[in-house]
Each structure stands twice: as C-alpha cells, then as structure tokens.
Amino acid sequence: MINSGFEHLQNYLDRTAQTELIEDVRKIIAEAPLFVPAMPKSGKPFSVRMTNCGPLGWVSDKTGGYRYQETHPVTGDPWPDMPKKILDLWADLAPDFPKPECCLINYYQPDAKMGLHRDADEEDTRSPVISVSLGDPASFRIGGQNRRDPTRSLRLHSGDIVVLGGDMRLAYHGIDRILKRDSGLLPERGRFNLTLRRVNLAQ
Ligand code: MD3
Ligand code: FE
C-alpha cells in the first residue's frame, strides 16, 4: 500500500538479512569501488562515499554535476547487477511500480553527513524511493516540498526501511550525523544506506 507519504518500517530486516545484504554490498564494492562525489561547480567533496548497482548509477562531480550514468566514474566499467535480494525488497514493498534502475550505496564514516536536499534528478517521480539502513544509527531529518517548511528529526537504525512516495517523494531530507553507537554489523563502524530508485518513466 505504498503510493503515499512516508513510511518508516522499523527493524524490517532481521540481523541475518542485514548480514546477507552487507555481504552483497561488499561484493559490489569489490567490483565498483566507493568513489568521492563532488559538488557541481565548487567541486567540494562530499563526506559520504558512494557506489551503485543496477543499470544506472547516480554520480556527481565539479564539471558534470548531478546525473545518472551507466558506468563507474573512476573505472569506466558498467555498474554491477542489482542483487536479487534488493529487487525482491522492491517487489515486496512497491509491487505496483516499475522495477528500480538504480541502487545507490552511500557509505558514511562516523563523521560524515548529508545536507538537506531533494531527490529530483529522476524523470520518474511517481514511483517511490526505498531506503535501507545498515550499520550505526543515524539522525535523519525530513521536511516538506519547500526548503523553508518545518522539519522533524528521527533515528534510522540498522535494518530499518523508509519508503517515500506520493507527496513525500520530493520532500527535503538529509542526514545530520551518525551516532556513536556500535550496531555490531560493521567492523569498520559507520553506516551504509541503500537507496533504490526508478529513474526513467516506464513506457
Ligand atoms: C525522503 N540518502 O542518497 S535515505 C540520498 O541515509 C539520501 O543516505 C540518505 O538522501 C541516506 O539521496 C537518506 C532516506 C531517504 C531517501 C530518499 C528520500 C529519504 C527521502 C526521498 C524523498 C524524501
Ligand atoms: Fe536523498
């Protein structure tokens, strides 16, 4: 039932499912290493490291800006396939929408953050965005369609899933900080976030 608003599914993935997903993430990173995205124009590096799987990957750099492309910005290789477990999650949570084309993998070191922004680089903004949190907890902020709308803050824990659809699909959001509490999932600490998106309109 997922075409509206904001759904926070707490502890949707049990510990076994989290461990299995992290194994998939490690394989993806071995093929498609984490890269350092940069802000358009200023070239200021993000504190978050990224990679992708699926047909399209989200990238950003000084000269090219925010965009989707079929290849890794450093290796030039196509992105690894999206693992079945990730496609199954989408099929379970958003069965009425076309398959995701991008799974962006964000890695937050303990001091990383992501400023308030909206996800607006997709042609398809009718399909929801599905986000999976793995590792140390994060303080997440979400507002409205307008940058000046009031925001609220909530914690995302390992195994939580957030589904953003309908009127919340274009809401401003960001990660204020990673909490210094060990989830026990990641020896290196920090947090992974997987963000699944449909990019192109189907037909
Ligand atoms: C609310 N990632 O990659 S996920 C991003 O935790 C991004 O790494 C954050 O924002 C992270 O773009 C937040 C939760 C999320 C994802 C997409 C949204 C919240 C959203 C789209 C619309 C509104
Ligand atoms: Fe976002």
What is the CATH architecture descriptor?
Sandwich
The residue fraction in helices comes out at 10-25%
Strand content: 25-35%
Small-molecule binders here are:
N-(carboxycarbonyl)-S-(naphthalen-2-ylmethyl)-L-cysteine, fe (iii) ion
Number of helices: 2
The CATH topology is Jelly Rolls
Low-confidence stretches: none
Total E-strand runs: 12
Q: Radius of gyration from the CA trace?
A: 16 Å
State the separation between the terminal residues, measured CA to CA.
Answer: 23 Å
The main pleated sheet reads as: 6 strands, antiparallel
Top CATH class: Mainly Beta
Question: Mind explaining what this structure looks like?
Answer:
By secondary structure, the chain is an alpha+beta fold. It has one domain: Sandwich (Jelly Rolls). It contains 2 helices and 12 strands. The strands form 3 sheets. It has a 6-stranded antiparallel sheet, covered by helices on one side. Strands 6-11-8-9 form a 4-stranded antiparallel sheet, with no helix packed on it. It has a two-stranded antiparallel ribbon with strand order 3-4. A hairpin with a 3-residue loop joins β3 (57-61) and β4 (65-69). The radius of gyration is 16 Å and the shape is globular. The two termini are 23 Å apart. The structure holds N-(carboxycarbonyl)-S-(naphthalen-2-ylmethyl)-L-cysteine (MD3) and fe (iii) ion.
Task: Provide a quick synopsis of the model.
This protein is an alpha+beta fold and 203 residues long. The chain has one domain: Jelly Rolls. The chain has helices at residues 15-31, 84-93; strands at residues 5-9, 49-53, 57-61, 65-69, 102-108, 114-117, 129-135, 138-142, 152-156, 161-165, 173-178, 191-197.
